[in-house]
Amino acid sequence: MSDLFFDYDLPEHLVAQEPAHPRDAARLLVARRDTGTLEHRVFHDLPDLLRPGDLIVLNDTKVLPARVIGRRAKTGGKWEGLFLHENPSGEWELLAQTRGFPEVGETLIVEPGELKLVLTGRTTDRHWLVRPDPPGTPADLLARHGQVPLPPYIRKGRARTDDQARYQTVYAAHTGSVAAPTAGLHFTPELFERLTATGIRTARVTLHVGLGTFAPVKTQDPTAHPIHAEWCEVGPETVAAVVETRARGGRVVAVGTTTTRTLESAARGGTLVPWRGDTSLFIRPPFNFQVLGGLVTNFHLPKTTLLLLAQAFAGTDLLRAAYREAVAREYRFYSYGDAMVIL
């Protein structure tokens, strides 16, 4: 697998620290699979790049304010954690860090102090099990006490109170992600109006983005990476929209790698069907796409499964050329960065 496009050098100043304003003012690199050509546009040009009868599919997950910070009641030492999920017994699993090793039974205070977490166990040094006090659902407690879980390459050296809105799509509906489906951050209500006026429809799926999405691949063979599982759902309305679109010769354009994973997970039998559950589908070259006809995606970190997914759809040579061009033209990378559309 040495011929895969899997790693690249990125100057630090190209890592976006702020999103475009307005959202659809981000730059858009158009990569065409049939001709192998690249074109430089702006995201609000998207209706001009698609065709009447195409279908855009969005991931309508909503980001939890999953980052919690505070102090240890016993020592006063600072600690920080990221909520991962709640287990059937009501315990929370956190990815946490602090100096030293808190003992089971120790109380962790979440700033400003109204929420306490009691350490009930560990699965590793950084994976903790805690029980909230007072009890409550993760959605309710984190809405009051959590912070936006920005990636460290954004959060470093800055804090913005408006990231709660900026790190969320305008169509987010179902709470459950610890990271945003970032390709969707570029859409605005006005852009949706223009898409509709052009004859381009939209449909929705849900995939709750987990931390494993961004996990670096450490295996010598990238395709042997143990893939993470994520919960997703494709409803009957979306299935009907996809079937109708394809029957009329339209393209199904997925917004983001999470939408792609969801659609293709529901079509592993060769036909798209309503489906919900945990998916461990690993999309990497070579891959036989059952649904996808186009992909809107951001520029991804090197050595990640996201880069492999984009490559499986675009092809190695085209994706390598696109990233080389994006760096040369100083596109903005990663979560708050610019986008590309692969057609």
Key terms for this structure?
Thrombin, subunit H; QueA-like; 343 residues; 17 strands; cytoplasm; isomerase; alpha/beta; QueA_dom1
Spell out the blueprint of helices and strands.
Elements: E1 27-32, E2 37-42, H1 46-49, E3 55-59, E4 61-63, E5 67-72, E6 78-86, E7 92-98, E8 107-110, E9 115-122, E10 127-133, H2 138-145, H3 152-155, H4 163-166, E11 174-177, H5 189-197, E12 201-207, E13 230-234, H6 236-247, E14 252-255, H7 257-265, E15 275-279, E16 294-298, H8 305-314, H9 316-328, E17 339-342
Helix pairs in contact: 8-9
Question: Please, could you describe this protein's structure?
Answer:
With 343 residues, the chain is of the alpha/beta class. It has 2 domains: 12-63 and 164-342, QueA-like (3-Layer(aba) Sandwich), CATH 3.40.1780; 67-147, Thrombin, subunit H (Beta Barrel). The chain has helices at 46-49, 138-145, 152-155, 163-166, 189-197, 236-247, 257-265, 305-314, 316-328, and strands spanning 27-32, 37-42, 55-59, 61-63, 67-72, 78-86, 92-98, 107-110, 115-122, 127-133, 174-177, 201-207, 230-234, 252-255, 275-279, 294-298, 339-342. Helix 8 crosses helix 9 (316-328). One of its GO terms (biological process) is tRNA queuosine(34) biosynthetic process. Keywords: Cytoplasm, Isomerase, Queuosine biosynthesis, S-adenosyl-L-methionine, Transferase. This is S-adenosylmethionine:tRNA ribosyltransferase-isomerase.
